[in-house]
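Re: duplicated header lines in exported structure tokens

Our pipeline writes sequence and tokens for each protein into one text file. With two proteins the header for the second block appears twice in some exports. Here is an export where it did not happen, for reference. First protein block:
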Amino acid sequence: LSVLLSLLVPAHTTRSPDCGGILTPSGLSYRKSGPRNSHAVSREGRQQHLSVRRNQINSIKVAELSLSLIPDTGLRLSSNVDLSITPTLSTTKVMRLSILVDLHVEMNPEGNLELVTSACKPTVEEMQSTEGKESQSSSSDVDEEINIDKICLEVSKLLLLPNEELMSLTAQFPVTPSCQVQYLPLAAPVFAEQGITISLQTTFQVAGMAIPLPVSPVPFSMPEPASSSPSHLTLAFSEHFYTSLFFALEIAGAFNMTIPVKITPLPRQMGSLFQEDLPVTLQAVFRSSPRVVLEEGKGALKLFLTVHIGAGSPAFQSFLSVNVDMSAGLLLSIADIRMMISAAVIEDIELSLAASDVGPVPAALLEELFLPTIREEVPAQMNVVLSEGVFLPHISSFTYTDVNVTIHKDYVLVPCNLELRARTG
């Protein structure tokens, strides 16, 4: 297989999207609900993360935290944090730390998306104290209490974890033991009033080598997001995405099938080839790559096979070959972060004689002997390969819920909500 892949024409250099996602404003504002009450922090943590000088923080309370979308620019993070501090043994102050941060997303040299700060403005206001005073602190007073200069540096450090999660978007995911899928962003996301749109290109590796995918006959662009969508996220997959998936699995040999079949007695012209009663076996290979066709409300999987009919094990001897063209309904659903794909019942099937060592065989006899087995076993064996599902583009800390799959002409839409995974360890 490695030798075969090395002989293939190098992958086409045209970079065009075949899938992507639109994160809506409601998805942007989603966060795991939980208590935001005052809580104590360690002395080390106080000094490191809040840059407090000569003071002791008794409690921290997040009064407000919001993330808003700025069209054509990026994101704005607004946070108000109340700090209860004790500068002296006799005085306790409550300080309101307000931080306004502008963020945007870039593509780094490694091809990963990266969240960076473009502006940061922290302010501090004294809310109350045990001395009964309530006033706006002067800049010198503020500097005595909290090191403003270091606040933005600490904010930038808070982006380390989100950026690690963004890197997980481009991880390789297994489809089969020898075939992996990877989703690569083509450019930085587009920020619009309706949401954040990211376009992705799917790549596949077989036996550790990238394979050239067929060129899409129709350039794919992300559908316009619905302004009233209640979903957190809408994923979109082009018709070409599914054709590329089946092409990769075919290159990996995942769909090569051996099908035992019971035909007793064999027709005389076939049985005369064998001196003993050997079981008949079908070996199916693709003579042309599978193709997926998406229409409004339904999908179809087109298969083009050559089925070799013979006997003998382990030395298989073919005495008859049949070309089989079939079409099966395509079923799609989502489980957690995987797309489940399966071939439904065969809707259309044609058999024609390709080669014969036993002379002419009437089409009616071919259908009588082999069509029922092929109709049943081909989709069944393909579904075994597909049964684990295909990983969707995602970042490691989220899973998908409330999912709906809608098939349109040339593409599939998957509106869904986000759910934060419980962190372990």
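Second protein block, exported in the same file:
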Amino acid sequence: QRVVLMDPSEDPDDILRANRSREKTFVFDMVFDHRATQEEVYVSTTKSLIGGVISGYNATIFAYGPTGTGKTYTMLGTDCEPGIYIRTLEDLFKALEATAEEMDYTVSMSYLEIYNEVIRDLLSPSSGFLDLREDSRGNIQIAGITEVSTTNAQEIMQLLTKGNKQRTQEPTAANKTSSRSHAVLQVMVTQKSRRQAIGEEMRIGKLFMVDLAGSERAAQTQNQGKRMKEGAHINRSLLALGNCINALSEKGGSRAQFVNFRDSKLTRLLKDSLGGNSRTVMIAHISPASTSFEESRMTLIYAYRAKNIKTQV
């Protein structure tokens, strides 16, 4: 359960700085090394959330970390090693079929990306930029997004792979196919009892799966011009997410914290899943390379803060 981060530039024989070492230990709920399989990661992070979604709770899974540490691999995976998206949906459909005798259910999903603070629909990229709106009940809606209703996991895999090809990817010095945008898969499960009761009850569970853009320092990617601007946008939305996480993890402290969800489109979209009625899992990715020590350190600190958020679902 612990990660020990050692500074590659430290000299073990340097007695003067021995007690000022930058070696740090972080404790998390779960830590995986390079030998962990997709199945293991899925079972110990996400599998337990599915029952909740079916009983009408919301759930969110984040993949966070610098470029090239495997966020898209964890979430989407490959054809022979599918990631969290597919495994979650397969299990979700199995669990829903088990309740099919008593419940009518519909599953609708949408797949979008947030790039440079604009929202694009990945399932129909030609529709241009979309607006984020709030309805009368305070739910955040995306106007004009494509919703697909299907309960076939194979079909979904094809949709997601197709959608992922539409994502904004650019080569940087850190990674040839670096995703420069946040991809959000929204799955909405609506259930209605088949028994004709007086009070019709509907259960709505929302599942967000978010593959965030890489959170690395600009120096690492040697970005200039357009890439640099884009990186600034990415870091801005991740900073907004970090600020929300900070404010939420200090809640109940001495001072009342204001949580600014409106700082970026990403935090506004995930408002419910951060501080609200939701069970949230963050999967933080780090690279074992000594060149990315700074990135790993920042990622671990970020994830450690996120661990301190307590919400009542």
